[in-house]
Specification:
Strand order of the largest sheet: 18-19-20-27-22-25
Distance between the termini: 72 Å
Number of strands: 28
CATH architecture of the largest domain: Alpha-Beta Complex
Largest sheet: 6 strands, antiparallel
Shape: globular
Low-confidence stretches: 1-20
CATH superfamily of the largest domain: Spore Coat Polysaccharide Biosynthesis Protein SpsA, Chain A
CATH topology of the largest domain: Spore Coat Polysaccharide Biosynthesis Protein SpsA, Chain A
CATH class of the largest domain: Alpha Beta
Number of domains: 3
């Protein structure tokens, strides 16, 4: 009798242990994209997801994407998917908010969201049995974080039933920049439930958009998803076997590089360029939509930035060194120079070190076309700005001509540049803050504030910061060619070629 009782208690304990074992939820944050519609602040070299545009806490959009998840039950470290060029920026921004990602997958080139999500699903199964994957874009803003987290908890119930959950945004206006989702019946926000998806609507014209928002079965397509890893893998395998086959081979041939996982370029090149909506959600019978009413925005244009930012009494958003009079409903931003506005309305004016944008606010969706034209005409301002970020810190180009350039170099404590040489330029370094350890050919020495050194053309050299404060110096380049690609690296602790 006693043994029987103990055995029964043990079974109950085992049963409770099994029932209380929770399925983990892994954020998958998609960090690709160039954010060209927010040019000139957002550029290919440093796109909007890494900027603190419209963020009152001074964190970037990427950092806020991760931090708003705090409080979700059974949440573990995220998987980031980004490109090679931005890998150190993404890693550093996660470090700043004390997050150590489960993985940072590096795409050799963009192939849209379906391959990125599938590759992240493969990665998740290396450490978890079958986790929930919460798919997030790194450039969204959600003002009511609690509502969002609460809806995620509801979504996990459907995800556990092998449903593919997408989150539809309750429309506030007839937007032509968003896709729409039609559900099988209208939503009741007083009693939230997942409703089967009827169809997806591509970005409509204004007339069609006005029709759609009057129909309570339509929501904006947020691009936020929740599903179990094995569910999405099986659906892609069934509905798009080509993507499955290419991504499986790509993932299998990937390699580790420091804290990053490089996806195989040769395999990935043949992968279709296709969104998860087209590849799966428009074809599956597992799709449901949950209504999200949490002040969401994709921060996709300067108009949306203006709409989602606190304004003065005249409806203006003012950032930086700006004076305005008789100005209404404008977005005014100046990084350095004094910007003065007088007698204008409904304009966006963005002034940076090397470019100025002046646009009618309702035309801001078309900035992407202007950037494409700048790229076609080889304007360097289309893709890069004067501030360049590196794993060791950053540089700012101050002045330049065809055969000379002046930069400010900022090196983080304990960081070092690669051992390198240049074929076409010599350099002169003047220390203005901190202490530098310098290596030139076979010589090593230390220089401090107000001291300088010269690096002849063709000399092997390296700059390091052995101190505990940032190192800052002025670099003067002189030569026949001053491009950033004139670098031959012999040794680099960050794994760059």
């Amino acid at each position: 009798m006693k043994f029987s009782l103990i055995f029964s208690i043990q079974l109950m304990n085992d049963s409770n242990n099994i029932s209380t074992k929770k399925t983990k939820i892994i954020p998958v944050i998609l960090c690709g994209g160039q954010g060209t519609r927010l040019w000139p602040l957002s550029r290919k070299s440093y796109p909007k997801q890494f900027l603190s545009i419209n963020c009152l806490n001074q964190k970037s959009l990427l950092q806020n994407t991760q931090q708003r998840l705090e409080g979700i039950k059974d949440l573990i470290e995220p998987i980031l998917v980004c490109n090679n060029e931005h890998r150190f920026i993404a890693a550093e921004q996660m470090r700043e908010i004390h997050i150590n990602p489960k993985s940072i997958l590096l795409e050799p080139f963009g192939r849209n969201t379906a391959p990125a999500i599938l590759l992240a699903a493969f990665k998740s199964l290396e450490t978890e049995d079958n986790p929930h994957l919460l798919i997030l874009s790194a450039d969204h803003q959600i003002k009511n974080d609690k509502k969002f987290r609460d809806l995620i908890e509801i979504g996990k119930t459907y995800s556990s039933e092998e449903k593919l959950v997408t989150f539809g945004i309750i429309p506030r206006s007839p937007e032509t920049g968003y896709g729409y989702i039609k559900s099988e019946k209208p939503f009741n926000l007083n009693s939230v439930e997942g409703i089967k998806i009827s169809e997806f609507i591509e970005k409509p014209n204004l007339r069609k958009a006005k029709e759609l928002i009057n129909d309570k079965t339509y929501t904006w397509n947020s691009g936020i998803f929740l599903f179990k890893a094995k569910t999405i893998i099986n659906e892609i395998k069934k509905l798009n076997p080509e993507i499955y086959s290419v991504c499986k081979k790509t993932f299998g041939n990937s390699s580790m590089d420091l804290d990053f996982q490089r996806l195989d370029e040769q395999c990935f090149e043949s992968c279709p360029d296709i969104s998860i909506d087209v590849a799966v959600m428009e074809k599956t019978n597992k799709g449901i939509v949950l209504p999200l009413d949490a002040q969401w925005s994709d921060i996709g244009s300067w108009k949306s930035v203006w709409e989602n930012t606190d304004k003065d009494n005249y409806g203006n958003v003012i950032k930086g060194n700006v004076i305005s009079q008789n100005t209404e409903h404008c977005y005014l931003h100046s990084e350095n120079k004094l910007l003065v506005s007088l007698g204008i309305k409904d304009l966006v004016i963005i002034d940076t070190d090397d470019a100025t944008l002046i646009a009618e606010k309702n035309q801001s969706q078309n900035i992407k076309k202007i950037v494409n034209e700048l790229q076609d005409k080889n304007f360097k301002e289309a893709n890069s700005n004067r501030k360049g970020f590196r794993p060791w810190g950053f540089y700012i180009s101050i002045l330049e001509d065809q055969k000379w350039k002046v930069k400010i170099i900022h090196v983080n404590p304990g960081a070092k540049l690669s051992l390198q040489m240049h074929h076409h330029r010599s350099e002169h370094w003047v220390i203005v803050k901190g202490k530098a350890e310098v290596e030139i050919d076979d010589k090593k020495f230390t220089i401090t504030k107000n001291e300088s050194t010269y690096i002849p053309l063709g000399a092997r050299h390296r700059l390091s910061n052995p101190g505990e404060i940032p190192l800052e110096l002025i670099e003067v380049q002189s030569g026949s060619y001053l491009g950033e690609d004139d670098i031959i690296r012999f040794d680099d602790q960050y794994g760059r070629n």
